[in-house]
Design goal:
This protein is mostly helical. The protein is about 65% helix and about 5% strand. The protein contains 18 helices and three strands. Strands 1-2-3 form a three-stranded antiparallel sheet. Strand 1 and strand 2 (about 105-110) form a beta hairpin. Helix 6 (about 120-140) packs parallel to helix 9 (about 170-185) and helix 9 (about 170-185) packs across helix 14. The longest helix has about 35 residues, at about 270-305. The two termini are about 35 Å apart. Keywords: Cell cycle, Cell division, Cell inner membrane, Cell membrane, Cell shape, Cell wall biogenesis/degradation, Glycosyltransferase, Membrane, Peptidoglycan synthesis, Transferase, Transmembrane, Transmembrane helix. Pathway: Cell wall biogenesis; peptidoglycan biosynthesis. This is Probable peptidoglycan glycosyltransferase FtsW. Its main location: membrane. It is a multi-pass membrane protein.
Length: about 425
């Protein structure tokens, strides 16, 4: 009994570590964001560093929130999943509360906090991903086998989308539905059964885009921005001119012309165009490569979590990876004229208090996923007889003989099945290939 207690104590003493590749990509993109916010907003106010100072304040608060998230056990967060879902609805309804909600450019998406305005959908993205991750863990096999379990998260997403469309916020609505569909697929949903809701959703969102006049104008201006360069095509035509001026190596940091009152929202929605103008094709490729590293590493870590039977961690990584990848694709696509204007910021780079704060929280959760994954891998190495050397910790006492801890190969599938959480039938976990 004393030996078991000592072994349990040794396992509890083993700590994890944060993924250096992921942390490096986050720091690099955040640093680029600070530089580009300063450059793109220098001519927008009487004080040249107004938006930079504002961005740094929100970034500082966001880093504090990220540290808190990175130091919080995921199981502690998971137990509040229902409260988090309720928070999503409360936040989206709060914008319609007289005296609290705030309207900007005809859209009611913000709540007034006195010192600043907060766009509630940014918090909803994080809270919803955590709730859906918890749901997929609790009903993992039912989602794969039954209609009601699959339709419940779609119904929740649909209710949130209705509230978003009332604001209106078509871009975030589309993003939320795409995140839901992606997480359900990665969670093992039955693909033929999933195809019907996807088709209905695509038809419905397309109809909403067509019947609303201002959305239709965005589509037509996207198809030919030069037809009405001083009207509906103004933003996109100036964005394309900025990208074209950058050529291969750019005009140099701070030398953008389009940011000088020509390109609207140069420090938020169209910051990528200013970056392309100042750093050229090579600079934009570097930024795309950093996002590819961030998202690719996130999905890889998610798959490692699934292999380790840490499904909640894995689904959080999948959800955040889907969010960052799709929002980045849309933001860059809008700046390059391959997608209609959506009003989505470029994660970690664009200015915007709400976006900066909640993206930092998401990055903190990702880092927590990597910490707990590494900790689990080190503890597993000790359990299977690798000793503390395999876990990167000092040796407290000699490891047990290998013969006493090894598992016969024939028994490995049985042991793996026993550790699973299947309640209905065996299932195949999502995989992108064998991971080393």
């Amino acid at each position: 009994m004393n030996d078991l207690s000592r072994q349990a104590t040794r396992l509890e003493a083993i700590e994890g570590s944060y993924d250096k590749w992921l942390l490096g990509a986050i720091i690099a993109l955040t640093g680029i964001g600070v530089v580009m916010v300063a450059s793109s907003s220098i001519a927008l106010m009487s004080s040249p560093f107004y938006y930079l100072n504002r961005h740094l304040i929100f970034l500082a608060v966001g880093i504090v929130l990220a540290v808190v998230a990175a130091r919080t056990e995921l199981k502690s967060i998971e137990q509040y999943n229902q409260i988090l879902l309720l928070g999503c609805f409360v936040l989206l309804l709060a914008v319609f509360t007289p005296g609290l909600g705030s309207t900007v450019n005809g859209a009611r998406r913000w709540i007034n906090l006195g010192i600043s305005k907060f766009q509630t959908v940014e918090a909803v993205k994080v809270l919803y991903i955590v709730w859906l991750s918890s749901y997929l863990v609790r009903f993992r096999d039912e989602v794969n086998a039954t209609w009601p379990a699959m339709l419940k998260p779609l119904g929740v997403a649909g209710a949130l989308v209705v509230l978003l469309l009332l604001q209106p916020d078509f871009g975030s609505s589309t993003l939320l539905l795409a995140i839901t569909a992606g997480m359900l697929v990665l969670g093992g949903v039955n693909m033929p059964r999933m195809s019907m809701p996807v088709i209905i959703g695509l038809v419905g969102m397309s109809a909403l885009a067509i019947i609303e006049p201002y959305r239709m104008r965005r589509i037509t201006s996207f198809l030919d921005p030069w037809a009405d360069q001083q009207g509906d095509g103004y933003q996109l035509s100036n964005a394309l001119m900025a990208v074209g001026r950058g050529e291969w190596t750019g005009v140099g940091l701070g030398n953008s012309v389009q940011k000088l009152y020509y390109l609207p929202e140069a420090h938020t929605d169209f910051i990528f165009s200013v970056t392309a103008e100042e750093f050229g094709f090579l600079g934009t490729c570097t930024i795309v490569a950093l996002y590819a590293l961030l998202v690719g590493r996130t999905f890889w870590l998610g798959m490692r979590c699934v292999e380790m039977k840490r499904h909640f961690s894995g689904y959080i990584a999948f959800g955040i990876g889907l969010w960052i990848s799709m929002q980045t694709f849309v933001s860059i696509g809008v700046n390059l004229g391959i997608l209609p204007t959506k009003g989505l910021t470029l994660p970690l780079i664009s200015s915007g208090g709400s976006s900066v704060l909640m993206t930092c929280v998401a990055m903190g959760l990702l880092l927590r996923v990597t910490y707990e994954l590494k900790r689990a891998e080190r503890r597993q190495a000790v359990r299977i007889g690798g000793g503390e050397e395999a876990a990167g910790a000092p040796v407290a006492e000699p490891a047990a003989p290998a013969a006493a801890t090894s598992v016969p190969k024939a028994a490995e599938p049985v042991a793996a099945a026993a550790r699973g959480t299947s309640r209905l039938q065996s299932r195949i976990e999502p995989t992108f290939g064998r991971l080393s």
